[in-house]
Each structure stands twice: as C-alpha cells, then as structure tokens.
C-alpha cells in the first residue's frame, strides 16, 4: 500500500495541522465521526457557556438586562453583526444578526424587488434550496405576479451551474437576482464577484444566500459591491438549532425603507419614543423587525470567538486540504463501488463538503450512521460528507472512507431500506 493511504499518513497530517487544538473546544462524541457540520454544526464549550451567561443575566437583571449586565441585550444584534462582519468582508454597520434565513430573505426581497416597466422578473437558479424558491414565489405573488415571473437558470449536469448561463439570463426583464453562494448539494462555489459585476452592468440588483459558505469560505461582500446577503448560523457557524440568522445590506443602500418594518427597525435612540412614524436605523439595523431572540442569539457570542481566533483564511485552507484528501482516499479505496464524486474538483469552485452519488445512497447513509459515522443524505441519491476545519481531523476523514469501504464490501447497507428518514 502506498504510504499516502495509511492511517499513519492521516496522523501525520493531523500533527502538522495549525488548527488542531480547536477540536478540543467542541463536544465530540467518542467513537463517532461527525461529517454533518454543514447541516448542524457541533456545540462548542464557548457557545454553551455564552448561553449560560445570558441565562444568568436574565436571572440576575430581569428587565434591566436590556441595557445592563455584561452584554446588554438591546445592543446584542449589533454587537454580533460587528463580530461577524469579518467573515463576510463587510463594514460593521452593514451586518445585523436577526431573524432566520427565510425571514431575512423575505425582508430583503420585499425591500429590493421593485418591479418597474418591463423589469418585473426575478432571476434564480434551478438548484437552490426549496425555502428560497418558495419565498421568491410568495414575494412575486404579493406583487400580483405568477410563478412564470421566476426565471430559474437550469443546470446542465444536474449538479453545477454555469456562470455564463446565469449572465446570459440577465435580461432587461430582470429586476432582481437571488443566488446561493455555495450550492447546498454539490457544494459548488459561485463566482459572486463576477456575477455581481455582470448584474450591475445590466442595471440589476443582486443578493446571495450564504448558508453554505458562511464560516467555510472567505467573502468580500463590500468590495464585490454585492447589494444584499443573508445566512443562517447553525451550519458552519455552530450556533445551534434555530440560532438567529444574519443579513448584509451594502452601505450604498442605507436609507432605503425596509419592506417588512417593525419597531426594532428603529433608530435605537428613538425606538422608545413610541412614535407611530418609524425612524429607521441608519444602517443594516433597519432590517430587523421585532424583539431579538436573545436566547437563540446567545450561543453565537461564544461560537464566533472561535472564528475570530482561528481566522477564516486558515479555516478555508484546512477545509480545502481536508476535502482534497477525502477525494483522494475515496478514489483510491472506493474505485470499484460505483460512487461518483459530483462536487467540483478544482479549488476555486469547491465548497466545504464532498458530494457523492450512489444508487443505494439512502441506505448507505443509514449503514454509516449505524457504524457511528454521521453523513447526510439528499434525495434521491446523494451523500454529503463535510469534514469541518475547526473540529474534524484527517484521521476522521480516513476513518469515514474506511467505514464506507467496509459497508460496501460487506454489503452492510442491505439490511436497511433505501428510503429517506423524516429528517435527513
Ligand atoms: C439551510 C438553508 C436554508 C434554511 O433556511 P431557514 O430559514 O434557516 O430554515 C435556506 N436556504 C439555504 C440555501 C440553506 O442552505
């Protein structure tokens, strides 16, 4: 066997890993290899502690916790926006932590979709996450347009999108473009800078869903001149199930009225004047709606510290190394078992996870779980494996592929049905 495919080699890569100590910050279950951090990131000790801290401030301060205590809740959304700005390449005032991915998308589309003359359509893609598409159709319906007003750029191969095809679809009928930064299945990274430039040259506003890139790859939203973006915090950012999401609005648009207004859209000094005329915050804070979900934002306080300490550049570098290594071992070990690697191979387009297709995918995933390796299944035949830079090791990757090989050799998947679970 070549040295490169031994466990000793994986251990050598781990020993040389600059981020290896971050693994100790997380709760990893013994004997379990977690490869699903792009669906729900693991709990860190810091995130846990920050939840306890916010609980303690509620216990101690009651109503005065809004403006007192160590981290006053009234300014928490802004504080966390500041702490997250570096991850998206934004100015502090351009990011606010609020709502959920889907709610923020409704907020931003209702703000930036302003059909006028023959520019009435929204441009999206055929591979995006369903929630985004439902929201776009609902926003069109609110303006009196049917689904034919949503243009979805098709995929040639069913896995990836061609940026040229997207640009060709940027016609004079398009009022707004919403695309993912990284596709949730194949993990393809779209060239956000190029797409933004092309959209603006054609007089179209453009926004991105960063759910699968936030915390995994660096962004330069401000410099790329992106109009708006939104993302969740429970995948690569590890802030827990249903943790509060975030959004970006380019400072060029400060002053535009929020489509969905509420009293937390207010300038913070004026909010408690209780006037019936809204004075919106001068920055991205204007896109908040109601009282922040303080307990669901709390884990982000601790979770983000780890990103500030590790640095997104180093995280991306290790992530690329992990996925390259994983593809390498998959090709070496699984060559005879009909797996197809469907994520982009090149570094520029490769996101934070590996995407395999196999006709028996649903039950192979069940067999992996039974063997304590946690993948995620995407209907009809996809297996996503996400080796996460902050807590997965090269040995995890080695173990994952060896387990997959054993399952295939022993046909261990045959004892399970090839159907998806309720949550997969
Ligand atoms: C995870 C994800 C969502 C989830 O939206 P929620 O409102 O947080 O449930 C939406 N869009 C994409 C692309 C996602 O990856």
Automatic annotation (TrEMBL):
Molecular functions per Gene Ontology: kynureninase activity
Write out the pathway annotation from the protein's UniProt entry.
Cofactor biosynthesis; NAD(+) biosynthesis; quinolinate from L-kynurenine: step 2/3; Amino-acid degradation; L-kynurenine degradation; L-alanine and anthranilate from L-kynurenine: step 1/1
**Reaction(s) this enzyme catalyzes, per UniProt:** L-kynurenine + H2O = anthranilate + L-alanine + H(+); 3-hydroxy-L-kynurenine + H2O = 3-hydroxyanthranilate + L-alanine + H(+)
Q: Which domain of life is it from?
A: Bacteria
Q: Which UniProt keywords apply?
A: Hydrolase, Pyridine nucleotide biosynthesis, Pyridoxal phosphate
Any idea of its EC number? 3.7.1.3
Return any one Pfam family short name: KYNU_C
Binding of pyridoxal 5'-phosphate, residues: 101-102, 129-132, 209, 212, 234, 263, 291
Cofactor(s) needed for function = pyridoxal 5'-phosphate
Which InterPro entries does the protein's record reference? DegT/StrS_aminotransferase (IPR000653), Kynureninase (IPR010111), PyrdxlP-dep_Trfase (IPR015424), PyrdxlP-dep_Trfase_major (IPR015421), PyrdxlP-dep_Trfase_small (IPR015422)
Q: How does it assemble?
A: Homodimer.
Name the protein family. Belongs to the kynureninase family. Belongs to the DegT/DnrJ/EryC1 family.
Say what the protein does: Catalyzes the cleavage of L-kynurenine (L-Kyn) and L-3-hydroxykynurenine (L-3OHKyn) into anthranilic acid (AA) and 3-hydroxyanthranilic acid (3-OHAA), respectively.
What name does this protein carry?
Kynureninase
């Amino acid at each position: 066997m070549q040295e490169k495919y031994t466990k000793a080699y994986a251990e050598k890569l781990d020993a040389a890993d600059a981020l290896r100590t971050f693994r100790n910050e997380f709760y990893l279950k013994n004997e379990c290899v977690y490869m699903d951090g792009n669906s729900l990131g693991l709990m860190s000790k810091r995130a846990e502690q920050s939840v306890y801290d916010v609980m303690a401030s509620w216990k101690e301060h009651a109503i005065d916790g809004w403006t007192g205590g160590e981290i006053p809740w009234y300014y928490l959304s802004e504080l966390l926006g500041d702490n997250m700005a570096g991850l998206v390449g934004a100015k502090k005032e351009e990011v606010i932590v609020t709502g959920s991915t889907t709610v923020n998308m409704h907020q931003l589309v209702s703000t930036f979709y302003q059909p006028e003359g023959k520019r009435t359509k929204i441009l999206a893609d055929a591979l995006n996450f369903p929630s985004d598409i439902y929201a776009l159709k609902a926003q069109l319906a609110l303006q009196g347009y049917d689904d034919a007003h949503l243009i979805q750029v098709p995929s040639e191969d069913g896995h990836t999108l061609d940026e040229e095809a997207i640009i060709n679809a940027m016609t004079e009928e398009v009022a707004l473009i919403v695309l993912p930064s990284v596709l949730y299945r194949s993990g393809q990274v779209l060239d956000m800078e190029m797409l933004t430039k092309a959209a603006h040259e054609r007089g179209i506003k453009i926004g991105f869903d960063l759910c699968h890139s936030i915390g995994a790859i660096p962004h330069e939203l401000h410099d790329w001149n992106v109009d708006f973006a939104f993302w969740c915090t429970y995948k690569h950012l590890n802030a827990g199930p249903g943790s509060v999401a975030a959004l970006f609005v380019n400072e060029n648009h400060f002053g535009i009225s929020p489509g969905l207004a509420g009293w937390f859209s207010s300038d913070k000094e004026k909010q408690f004047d209780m006037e019936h005329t809204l004075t919106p915050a001068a920055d991205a804070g204007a896109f908040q709606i109601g009282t922040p979900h303080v307990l669901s934002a709390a884990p982000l306080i601790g979770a983000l510290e780890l990103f500030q300490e590790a640095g997104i550049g180093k995280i991306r570098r290790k992530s690329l190394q992990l996925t390259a290594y994983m593809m390498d071992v998959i090709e070496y070990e699984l060559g005879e078992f009909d797996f197809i690697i469907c994520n982009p191979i090149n570094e520029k387009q490769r996101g934070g996870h590996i995407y395999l297709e196999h006709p028996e995918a649903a039950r192979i995933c069940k067999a992996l779980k039974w063997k304590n390796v946690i993948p995620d299944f995407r209907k009809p035949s996809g297996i996503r494996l996400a080796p996460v830079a902050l807590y997965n090791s090269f040995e995890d990757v080695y173990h994952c592929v060896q387990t997959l090989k054993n399952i295939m050799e022993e046909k261990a998947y045959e004892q399970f049905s090839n159907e998806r679970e309720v949550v997969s």
